[in-house]
Fold this protein.
Amino acid sequence: MKIENYRLTVGLEIHAELKTRTKMFCDSKNDPNEVRPNVNICPVCMGYPGTLPVINKEAIRAVLRLGAAVLGKLADYTEFDRKNYFYPDIPKGYQISQYKHPLVSGGELAGVKLTRVHLEEDTARSLHDKGDESLIDFNRAGIPLMELVTEPVITSAADAVKFAKELQLLLNYLDIAEANMEKGEMRVEANISVSRSDLKNDSKVGPLGTKVEVKNLNSFRAVGKAIEYEYKRQVEILESGEKVVQETRGWDENKSETFSQRAKEESHDYRYFPDPDLPKLFIKELNFDLTLPELPWEKRHRLLKLGISAEHAEIYVTQPGWGGYFEEVASQLGGWTAKLVLASNYITSELKEPIDAKEFAEVINMISSGELSSKGAKAVLKIIGEKSGEARKIAEENNLLQESDRGVLDKIVNEVLSENKEAPIPYLVGQVIKKTGGKANPVIVQELLLERRIKG
């Protein structure tokens, strides 16, 4: 049987550390760039007996703003629960999380339905030293951690990667998380199952297969590769007549394959119960400001309406530096659509880094008015990039402005026609440009030549 006859279903669980000033339940500093171990700690995040946690309101607000952005249902009532398990990176023997009453329910992002978004505290970081020893750095313990869970509706590795990238982008736009995967600030877990497709009508209906969770994927490449590998692995198991085992697996980057870690836990294994040290929250009473900025998909739509190509729009949406620069140039150009499209073409093809927006806009204006040719514009931009300066002055000093005076060009057109009476128009345009040392405005030259031909 071909692999195409099996249906892949993926649900994602994504954790992102929020960039609040302090940790989730204490006033220890939230600093992901701290390299000294066990500096940002206190009795609360270290789990000392007798300590009492205090809820970080800014972390609550951050998750609610995300929920508003994805059009999820924001909770009116919420509470925190204790998720009980024993591991060296959990100093209390439990993690404070949310179970029955998440902050956000439902919603949609990048065409993927969401189940929930909730808030919990991060664990400490385990460092496996050379030899048999492991060390624990508690700087990360207690940092606000957002967890987003999707519905099991993703059907390809590519779509899973697309979703994860779009979430990272949204977190950046909302300014609630850096979500740098290389630093572990965003971690992806994929719940993957494989089942037979309905071969008679080639539909994708039918029961889901056995779920296998692949944990702690720390790059977009790893997300895609792990899902693709697990899809093929489970198909081979089913083809051999065996059953897929429900379990938690890890990802080996060096071998590009998953490996078994442990049997998959169920929610009852964690013995959730409401944390008695934390108050119940009624969200409306807290009067949060949930104002949203322009969101990534809104910006895409706006740019496309301006006539900007999808490729260029994606650059401006995903790269804040270039996106901000384009907006600055657009304000200088006054919203002229044709000029904006022209500006975008030059930004993406000629600039290695942003230059003065006012001078760049002046170059675009000179191109549009016929004062600068494409070749001349590139020369001016190159000089500005290397030495800065005023665009018009540079064009004048370097003899780069086009000759657009119809009277001057008319005389040269007459000379060229007398020398090449039967030549085609494109050839004649080239000859006029050659006689002017490359300065003749080709549009005006062509107009003059056509007028001569019509008059006979």
In short: Residues 3-286 form one domain. The first strand starts at residue 6 and ends at 17. The chain has a mean pLDDT of 92.
